[in-house]
Specification:
Layout lengths: L2 E9 L3 H19 L2 E6 L4 H7 L7 H5 L4 E6 L7 H15 L4 E7 L17 E7 L3 E10 L7 E7 L2 H18 L4 E6 L7 H13 L6 E6 H10 L6 E4 L1 H14 L7 E5 L7 E5 L16 H14 L2 H17 L13 H13 L1
Parallel strand pairs: 1-2, 1-3, 3-12, 5-10, 8-9, 8-10
Antiparallel strand pairs: 4-5, 4-11, 6-7, 11-12
The structure holds nicotinamide-adenine-dinucleotide, 3-isopropylmalic acid and manganese (II) ion.
Amino acid sequence: MKTYRVAALPGDGIGSEVVPAAIEVLEAAAALSGFRFAWEHFDWGSRHYLDAGRMMPEDALATLQPFDAIFFGAVGHPDVPDHVTLNGLLLPIRRGFDQYACIRPAVLHPGVRAPLAGKAPGSIDFVVVRENTEGEYAQVGGIVYPEAAHGVAVQSAVFTRHGTERIIRFAFELARGRGRKGLVTSVTKSNAQGFSMTFWDRVFAEVAADYPDLRTESLLVDAACMDLVRRPESFDVIVASNLFGDILTDLSAAVTGSLGLAPSANLNPTRRFPSMFEPVHGSAPDIAGRGIANPMAQMLSGVLMLDFLGEAEAARRVEGAVREALREGTGLTPDLGGTGTTRSATDAVLSRMAA
Ligand code: NAD
Ligand code: IPM
Ligand code: MN
């Protein structure tokens, strides 16, 4: 039987609650579709850091390399500075495995009450394509005399032609493949960042010329925030730099009902390295340990993983079961207005899958 080796990294906080829940659902889908998962669990994260002084072992990337995929929860712990946790685990994996295309779909599912009035289910359906290996996250810079009155910190953004062109091209290919509006929206801040972002605009225009069948639009990121609230249904594929893509996708998650529903894929499209699937949300320390985290963002990240592995039938099963559970509305977690728990929301999805 076809078997996929997947490294499970629940991480911190609600990561260790939603990852097992999503694995139950993925297991059920695999059984129905006739393939297997071989999960290997890694307890890397802030507990590992507090015990061993590292978020993950030095040879972690070599350990992960042979896996077919990485299924990640979240990291972030109140007792460890965020730049330590993130630069010790998540960001080195994204960069080290050249997961340059971060895909973050934003869909208004049936049964979900969006904060915006008058939006029909399905009316909001777009994907943010976030550059995931360079830009504002390149970790180029330094700090001198941090304690002193003359302290200086410099953090540079890095935009290579290689990195810019490949993510923009990825977005155009995705828009073509989706076959929806055929629209690619580029989000920059070229009015203020006259080097990096005008370079991005130039590459965007060059790549767009190769896709005469698609329409394009360029927005400044401040206006894009406004338009994500004012006219979210008008978008199809949005392409943005690392930082802007990050910010826009908490907003797009909110506009489509909850951060607890927003999935994400960090893809290495060449498949030379494993890709990583994780929700948009973080470790949510404010609700961690209470058993009320919404597991659906993690499950829908599993859907992106199934699709990337080529298991489209199982992907549609999980997606369909989540959508049915949302439509039916029982057992849902508090972020969706329910009184349920991670357990009851998982059971709701499992029962729809059996049906
Ligand atoms: P967060 O995404 O963890 O939480 C923001 C808000 O959304 C919180 O009120 C939280 O309770 C809620 N929320 C998030 N996921 C939810 C879910 N599945 N169900 C119900 N409610 C949910 O963002 P934050 O509070 O800014 O960050 C917390 C920690 O997570 C920080 O340490 C941060 O650095 C880290 N973080 C990690 C990742 C990641 O690992 N990919 C992503 C974002 C933030
Ligand atoms: C995300 C997160 C991370 C990011 C943080 C935790 C470094 O916010 O995946 O959206 O900015 O990429
Ligand atoms: Mn984020």
